[in-house]
Specification:
The complex is a heterodimer of chains A (about 120) and B (about 110). By secondary structure, chain A is mostly beta strands. Chain A has no helices and eleven strands. The N and C termini of chain A lie far apart (about 40 Å). Helix content of chain B is about 0%, strand content about 50%. In chain B, strands 2, 4, 5, 6, 9, 10 and 11 form a seven-stranded mixed beta sheet that branches. The chains are: A mainly beta (about 120), B mainly beta (about 110). At the A-B interface, strand 5 and strand 10 of A face strand 4, strand 5 and strand 10 of B.
């Protein structure tokens, strides 16, 4: 059974940093791309960043230069390091597994971790 | 950026009725479109990919159609558990984008 478990969310001040994690199990992690999608309170889904199985990264323009996606295949974990956080980054952050190579659909999702940027 | 516009914003229906949801892309996505269902307090669930293929375990009452810029998600006969928000998503070009969602309510 595929499971994705996010952690690391919390309250951070504007301009601060936070790293969130997603521990994966139930599939061959090294073979799949991973993605972060966020959802601001009461709003829709917004793609944030993806990393392919071979390490190619993609970012939403508004987070480029501030966020970094990475993965540790030995720990079956994907990370999102966030710097210079803004109020508009406040959201539930979901990690999701990419369905197949170059098929950027997301077939399994974690339950999300809430990041709140506020003073 | 390829903008996806979903309509209507809210669809008010009763169990047993047919639901028809629309997603329009600002640029062609060929057939590279997915649909997701999200219930309150839950993560999204993949329903349809490549415009018309049901994901694993998705009931046959869910079907997708369309190509290019116009797509439809149809729920043939609404079950009580189908009342939720539905999002479309394109993967043809970066950034990956989602539509704004359609809420299906009783």
């Amino acid at each position: 059974e595929v499971q994705l478990l996010e952690s690391g969310g919390g309250l951070v001040q504007p301009g601060g940093s936070l790293r969130i994690s997603c521990a994966a199990s139930g599939f061959i992690f090294v073979s799949y791309g991973m993605t972060w999608v966020r959802q601001a309170p009461g709003k829709g889904l917004e793609w944030v960043s993806s990393m392919s199985a071979d390490g190619v990264t993609y970012y939403l323009d508004s987070v480029k230069g501030r966020f970094t996606i990475s993965r540790d295949n030995s720990k079956n974990t994907v990370y999102l390091q966030m710097h210079n956080l803004r109020a508009e980054d406040t959201a539930v952050y979901y990690c999701a597994k990419v369905k197949a190579t170059s098929e950027w659909y997301f077939d399994y999702w974690g339950q999300g971790t809430l990041v709140t940027v506020s003073s | 950026e390829n903008v996806l516009t979903q309509s209507p914003g809210t669809l008010s229906l009763s169990p047993g009725e047919r639901a028809t949801l629309s997603c329009r892309a600002s640029q062609s996505v060929r057939s590279n479109l997915a649909w997701y269902q999200q219930k309150p307090g839950q993560a999204p669930r993949l329903l349809i990919y490549d415009a018309s293929n049901r994901a694993t375990g998705i009931p046959v009452r869910f079907s997708g159609s369309g190509s290019g810029t116009d797509f439809t998600l149809t729920i043939s006969s609404l079950e009580p558990e189908d009342f939720a928000v539905y999002y479309c998503q394109q993967r043809t070009s970066w950034p990956v984008t989602f539509g704004g969602g359609t809420k299906v309510e009783i």
